[in-house]
Every structure is written in structure tokens, then in C-alpha cells.
Amino acid sequence: MKPDRPETAAPQDAAARRAVAPVVCYPPETLPQPDLARYRRARDGAAKVSETLVPPREARCFEVPAGHFFRIVCVEGPQVGDLNLWNAANLAERFYSGKTRALHGTHLSTGDRMWSAFPYLRPMATIVVDTLDWYGFDAFGGAVHDVIGTRCDPYTHRLLSGGTYHHCCHSNLTRALAAARSLALPEAEALVHDVLNVFMCTGFSRDTGQYFMKASPVRPGDHLDFFAEIDLLGGLSACPGGDCSAEHSSDAAACHPLLVEVYRPAAGALDGWRSPEPSGYDRSHGL
Length: 287
Known about the structure:
Layout: H1 14-18, H2 36-44, E1 47-54, E2 59-64, E3 69-74, E4 81-87, E5 90-94, H3 97-104, E6 113-115, E7 123-130, E8 143-146, H4 154-161, H5 169-181, H6 185-189, E9 196-204, E10 211-214, E11 223-228, E12 232-238, E13 258-264
Antiparallel strand pairs: 1-13, 2-12, 3-11, 3-13, 4-5, 4-9, 4-12, 6-7, 7-11, 8-9, 9-10
């Protein structure tokens, strides 16, 4: 946090320096744009081929072939989820929340994409439908579906409380990935990464800039629909914080399951579509 009483005296032109207008680092106009109208037509005619129920305070993995859709649904009560994505054929290619945040902003919604890590840097999934897009930004600066928080984890829990808790989203995702791919826990843990906080309402406090959470506005029936740009392995944890109105990393909050549904588009709905290629950068790094 910035200090309440700075130790360094401000220069005479401090006001002018603060008044300099900001510049958006990555103008979105230059990004390759998804064909949302086509994706939505394909989604409307798609048939459900599988579903995965994620129990409260647990995680599950699921697979989505390229060109299919997956939906994350709130099914019983207000509940947030932590989402990881991997290339199903290469777990080293995984979701890069930091670059996604830089490209699309702190909170994602319709038309935004989940980008993969270096050296691949390509769209993994595109958000096609967001039934919470009405929320926008509230008076506190809060919004839904953030890429600023990491995931609740047992290490930070122990640092702050001195306790041990095994149903943090980090541990949930570790167990789920280990089970899905028959990995040892240390190997699986190394592949778990920063998340899309599905349905979570978060922001930065205006006075101190601290990351905050508040009760999610999600209700049963709300959902996010994604288009899989590549073959995906997903991992979703139903956070032990429930709707994150009070705390997480404990058994105190009321928690509910989340449902993942996978849909296959009708034959011909995406004729001519191809998965995006990895970044064309030659990786020479100037040598």
C-alpha cells in the first residue's frame, strides 16, 4: 500500500506530474477480433454432449474439443469458481491471466478472450455469453469475473492465520489435475496457475488500492458461455468462500456446486474455422 504519510517531499511540479493523461498500454482495436455473431449462431444450434458437476469446496477437470462450447452455470445458490485452462495436448500451454488482464482489463465479459502463456500467446477461449454483464462497475469499483486475484491457497492461508486448510482453490485444482492426468501432486501443483475468478465480484479500494471482494450478484441460472479456440483441459474449483461475501479458505461460508456443460455445434456451423496458431515470434530474442 502507498503510505498515508510519504517520507519523500513532493516536487514543486507534483500537481502537473499527477495531471498527465494516461495512455492505454495495449489498444484493443489492434487485437484480432472474434466473430461473435458466428459463434453465437453455432452455440444456439449446439447439442450438449457432457456435463461435470463440481462439488462445493472441490474441483473437477473437464475436456472441451476445439470448436466446441462450454458453459459454467450457477445451479443452486450464489457461488464463485476459480478456472484454469490448459492446452489438452500440452499442459505447458496454459492460461495467462496477467497478459489477459493487460489486453482486456481487470474483469472479463462478452467478446473477451483467455490468452495462453508465452511462447504461445494465442486465444484459448472466447466468452460468448455473460448473463452478469448487466452488473458493470459498482460504486466501490467492483465488477464480476476478475483476472486480478490469484486463487486462495494454503500458503497464504498459513502466512496470515498460521493454520492449515486443504480445500483452498489452489489445492483443489492440484488434486483435480493430478487425478485427471495421473500426475504426482508436485507435478500437478507446478501446472496450476492464476485463474479467471468466475462470478466473483472484486475490485481495488479507491483509498488504499487493496484487492477486495464482496458478495457476488450471481444467482441460479446465471452462466458464462465460452468457445474453445483450441483443444482444452479445464479445471474449475467451487471456492470455499461461497459467494465471497465474508471470507474464503475456511468451512464457514455457505458453498454450492457449479456445473460445467460442454456443447458440440451442428455439422457445418463452423465450416472454414480453424484454431488460432501460436505466436509467430521466432524466439531469437535479438541473438
